[in-house]
Amino acid sequence: MNITFLGAAREVTGSCYLVETTDTRFLVDCGMVQGGREAPARNRKPFVFDPKSIDFVLLTHAHIDHSGLLPKLTRAGFQGPIYTTAATTDLLQVMLPDSAHIQEGDVERAKRNNKSAHDRSAAPTPLYTMQDARDCLRQVRPIAYDQELTPHPVVRCRFRDAGHILGSAIIEAWVSEHGQTTKLVFSGDLGQLGRPILRDPTPIEEADILLMESTYGDRTHKDLAATEDELIGIVERTLHEQGGNVIVPAFAVGRTQEILYHLHRLTREGRLRNLKVFVDSPMATEATRITMQHLELFDDAAKRLAVWHTIGKDLPYLHFVASAEESMALNQIRSGAIIISASGMCNAGRIKHHLRHNLPRRECGVLITGFQAQGTLGRRLVDGATRVRIFGEDIPVRAAIHTVGGLSAHADQPALLGWSANFRKPPARTFVVHGEASAALAFAERLRAERGWDVAVPEPGTRVQWVGRAGDGGHD
To answer: Averaged over 15-25, what is the pLDDT?
Structure first.
């Protein structure tokens, strides 16, 4: 059996792993590269494998850096099923068409900006179209958590709750070859223990081969109480003392709903007051609706609060912005607003307009709540840029930039180590993925030092051959 690391190797984007045996070829995730000037060119490169040869895809969750190239895969000839959880299936119905809309919009803007007819005819075609996204969605097959699936005669697998976003999964896969069964575990993106709303990641006790994420493999998040105090301080100071706005770049799926949860509960407890909250992302609005349809996936505390049923009562001024005209009108608000908008890394969408209008104002604040990949506008802000380019304009950064790591949907180093402690014996091989090189290497060293594991941090494109030993694998 061979495993090729096609994405999310020494970086946090473009997750894609190819598993090949004598009998089958399948992918785990097929994500888009996000961040950096080279991202569009990387996404346009042909797949290094024949898409027609792929039997099926296993998808860990809906975020575009894990799912975003699935329509391209279908367009290139892949005809097999895409297996994922029911909640992820629902989210993909929103996210993949939205991604296609962005691809088509980028091409139209390029054509408008090209001055000559020759330049317009040479403009690139979309990475994929809305029709490609619709075709792809017909191939998605929802699977319940913990239900055993046999996508191929030599493969059986199971999706376990990863606690990262709604529908996120750890994938266990048992692959048989030459009369021997090997158990592979793909952690996907793991949630932080004790986070509100979602349940904790499912413990896994056994694996022959483990692919484990390391987004925050080199740092520790603040605890929830300290994070809430920090959030309250930022909101109170910016809105009520300085008279500015709080701009929140947030992923439409997962982060927006969690921020609303915190604002709702803190208002209900009297710790925040007089909030005017705007959610300026049609996709976030849809994702929130889908979230309400999957309350069974919430943890007990979130179920008791029943935030989505009472949110109108306890956050009296919460408005989901729909039209572009309404979105533009938000930029006339000079003070007192919390504006939550996508994209989470500030690279596209309506958030760029709100940053353009609020970054130059010292009384305003920008609340960074998630990982910012290298090369993104969000990363430049976190790294202390004093000026940034937005829509071709040179924008001074005078607003305060607040990074609240405790709101991250990713496990920190202690949580990752805690999850790894559930294995009853070391995996025969562990590959640390989905982390920038510094984070992945730091986490790999902790696994070696504290667990005594055989750990590697693969380079992009690394192909690993596995020749199991007698007695390896095949056990639950």
So the answer is: 97
